[in-house]
Amino acid sequence: MIRVSFKALEIQKLYPLMISRGLMSSSENLFVFASDGQHTGIGELSPATGSSWTAAQGQSQLSAFSAEGIAQDPHSNYIRMREANIDPPAMAALDVALWDLLGKQANLPLYRMLGLPKSTVPTSVTIGINPADVTRERVPEILRSSGAKCLKIKLGSPQGRDHDKEHFAAAAESAKPFVAKLRVDANGGWTVSEAIMMCKWLSERGVDYVEQPLAEGNEEGLVELFKTRPLAIFVDESIRFSPDVIKVADRVDGINLKLMKCGGITEAIRIVATAKAFGLKTMIGCMSETSIAIAAGAAIGALFDHIDLDSHLNLNPDPASGAPIIDGVIVPTDRPGHGAALHA
Q: What is the pTM of this model?
């Protein structure tokens, strides 16, 4: 049987991240260890901005779930965790730990064990909502230090669309010397009429796609937006589990999954399969994760058209290692399992 243990750490961000739902400058993340007595896999819980998911609640749920020990099969454990209504980030922590353990037992990198190549898709790095002068200063710092080739600009400012435009213009101007591709994430901060207006405005400024233009729960509004969209529309908060893809497949161009939203690698693979069956593009994103969860995402990176695995690049410090950015790409290592290690 597999024994489970825990370690909680307060994680500080280098730059506080403001999105439409609020500001996050730190988070308490929970690291979950799954051991067979010889090998130990590690996973991570990271909460979302404005959510009720917490490290303490996740540990309580997983402690009860694994009190008598668990089998090491990620699939059967995932089903049992869903039936037990365990929070998705807590499910993700145990699911990733079990996959990491399997890779270590097989002495194989997780990406190879899953039959995947290493991804070659560059990651986006994120600039949060800021006053224009802060944006102008911060964007070059982020792009220079990371070597990233793509910039995701958070919009949906509570201060309105004029603020969105000022922030975007400052980010785009500052990114020009780096020839970075521009993407936008509104985190559900727009109304339908605002989204129609902003998508047209952004398309005229070379943006690749817009993510989550409307709030979760307003998926019906996507129908009108989708009809005359001038650029690709992705949804993020609207998708948690694979059946959610079916509900929006006729009104979006792609979906963004997060391990913390769906409960780990097991469901992430199902979501990708469902999205591809409907002809949709795929993206993987992140919460406030260290290199532990980022490495798990990178292990399945070859499944995605777009990648947004950058949270570990904005930590002060990252208490883990194993998810390096090389020529703009988050590359899995060749160590057994997902390849990341916790040092704190």
A: 0.98
Q: What's the pLDDT band for 86 if we cut at 50, 70, 90?
A: very high
Which domain-ending residue is among 85, 108, 131? 108
* Residue that is last in its domain, among 51, 82, 108: 108
User: Residue 236: which of 199, 264, 265, 261 has the closest Cα?
Assistant: 261
The pair of three-digit structure tokens given for residue 170, joined into one six-digit string: 């400052």
Token pair in block for residue 103:
């890779």
**Full domain range(s) for residue 196:** 113-342
Distance (Å, whole) CA 157 – CA 189: 7
Cα(98)–Cα(94) distance, rounded to whole angstroms? 6
How far is it, in rounded angstroms, from Cα 160 to Cα 143? 26
Strand partners, 315: 13
132 and 247 within one domain: yes
Tokens read off for 308: 């947004």
Give the SS3 label for residue 261: helix
Separation between Cα atoms, residue 42 and residue 33, nearest integer Å = 5
Same domain, 10 and 124: no
pLDDT digits 0-9 by tens, 112-129: 999 999 999 999 999 999
Statement to judge: residues 102 and 138 lie in one domain: no
Element (H, E) at 210: strand 207-211
Distance, CA of 34 to CA of 208 (rounded, Å) = 40
